[in-house]
Amino acid sequence: MYNSYELNESVRRALDLYSQSMIKIAFAYLKNIADAEEVTQEVFLTYLQKRPLFENSEHEKAWLIRTTINKSKNMLKTGWFKSRNPVPEDLSYLPEEENEVLQAVLALDKKYRIPIHLYYYEGYSIQEIADIMQSKSATVGTWLARGRLILKEKIGGLEDEEICL
Q1: Tens digits of per-residue pLDDT, 141-163?
Q2: What secondary structure letter does DSSP report for 163?
Q3: Whose CA is closest to 11, among 56, 37, 47, 52?
Q4: For the chain, first and last CA: distance in Å?
Q5: Nearest-10 Cα torsion for 149, 155, 158, 163
Q6: Residue 121 carries which DSSP code?
Q7: How far is CA 45 from CA 17, 38, 63, in A?
Q8: pLDDT tens digit string along 77-107?
Q9: I want to staple 112 with a disulfide (CB 3.0 to 4.6 A). Which of 5, 16, 45, 108 is the partner?
């Protein structure tokens, strides 16, 4: 069990290390930066309230990502979220080629978008993604392969070229 100072330091360290990654994951679900930041704040509030104990930093990161995914899914289920018309995010600050790829990734169905984001942008292995998404690794591999094919059709590429995000 943490004392107050240890808990604050633990949250501060996690915020520094993982907040940007959590925002990106939530953004992949919600497609809105403000909502993604809100979900990330909720995750850290949950961290403070529940005071979970972790075996190591990887366990902590996995807990934060899983909680981010769950809270993002919960937000998508709310009546308010379903009834609004989201404003597309302005990604003009990105280089044109990167913007095109990110737009194509964000346009994918959630079951392809999230594994592709975790694999290419966050650097997780297929097994780690399977654990995070509570799926089988073969299923995650299939989602990645299908997502890559869809992206290849959308953004083009050479016949034998592997998509590099």
Answers
A1: 999 999 999 888 888 765 555 55
A2: P
A3: 47
A4: 41
A5: -60
A6: I
A7: 16, 11, 13
A8: 876 655 554 445 554 444 555 667 777 887 8
A9: 108
